[in-house]
Amino acid sequence: MTGLIDCNNFFVSCERVFNPRLRNIPVVVLSNNDGCVVALSNEAKALGLKRSDPYFRIKDICAHNGVAVLSGNHRLYGDISSRVMATIAEIAGETEPYSIDESFVHFDPAFTCADAEKAGREMVRRVRRNVGIPTSLGISCNRTLAKAAARFAKRYPAYRSVCIIDNEERRRRALELTALADVWGIGRRLRRRLANYGLVRAIDFADWPERNAEAVLNITALHTWRELNGIDCVSPKQLDMPKKSMCTSRTFAKNITELSQLSDAVSIFATIISRKLREQHLATEGINVFLHTNSHRPDLPQYCNSAYAPLGEPASDTMAIARAAQKALDTVFRPGFAYKRAGIFISETIPAKAVQPSLFIPQADRIRRQRLMETVDRINASSLTHDRVHIASYTALEGLVNCNMRSPQYTARLDDIITVHNGH
DNA sequence: TCTGGGGTCCTAGGACCC
DNA sequence: TCTGGGGTCCTAGGACCC
Question: Whole-angstrom Cα distance, residue A385 to residue A246?
Fold first, then answer.
């Protein structure tokens, strides 16, 4: 039996753990740069607000209805997420974290449905009590059906946060009540394509004859079809697998026209992405820098492009990556455009251990650089709030990106730890 | 005025080989 | 007029996820 445990309105719930004033009122959390809504409380959903609504368009509704609006505090969410995952792991036989707020859990094969339900309820109770986060749990014979079950657990209070699809009758009933678009693995395009065949509910799709499914679907969608029919065939996400690609990018608060400003931004991206590489013991042969004008403004001239710059030899140190990034930026930059978004991406990572050293770079240099980065990382890790050491071209993200409504770093900054007053 | 960010996997088609 | 057959590898882009 497989379960999927999902944190309800995760970012909002994290904020509520430390700020009880946010309970029982509408709350939304915004994306980076305070661009659009990424998480909502049930009260905010009831006002008709939706995930991905641009903030500027719902600002008035928020003001009139007393909606608490917050910038994303992703460090906090990451911290809470690891607490949730650790608590789940205390009970589940095997866990398979799937995203920041979800994890698959695999119950002991010897478990009956009743055993699984009991363990599941304890999991939900403990995460709520020990971490403060409400969750929903779906249990079934594979991941896709567990996901569907979790939707019911979340939507219908009668389930008391745990829903099990454990027999044919329940499977059919659940799929009759589930829109095809709400099935895990069915996106916008596929939904539209399948609608042309008259398939609207999940059950219509699951009941489609196998020969149709095989003729029309690609392998991923075929897996979804099979799972809806009770066959377990989605493979587990490999844990601890090094990332194959990486990206660090931001949308800017204002349009940027000057190369020098982009150059500042690129230095920051280089710092962040090279640290990500080192954290995962990876290196790369080269990086891409990309630029975008504002695609929401068709009245302005548009430009979007990327350029690659090799590092000479695979590396992960900030200086080498920042240098390559500036080179790539010079290649890709065109004057006369208003840039709204930029970033660095790495399409292929290499395990740091497997790096083939270049013949033309003295080994001593390589070792010196490596030691320098280890030292920088160590010094910076000793500060919870900001980097004490960085490359000279590094400025700061402030000013480039909006995040004016961010909650305190409750779990990461001594000054922000909450004080509990005794009496009044 | 103001519209996120970070991933994975699959597939079609091009380039190249014999 | 008529213009092989089969294979591999790479890449860009599509589609999906949260």
Answer: 24
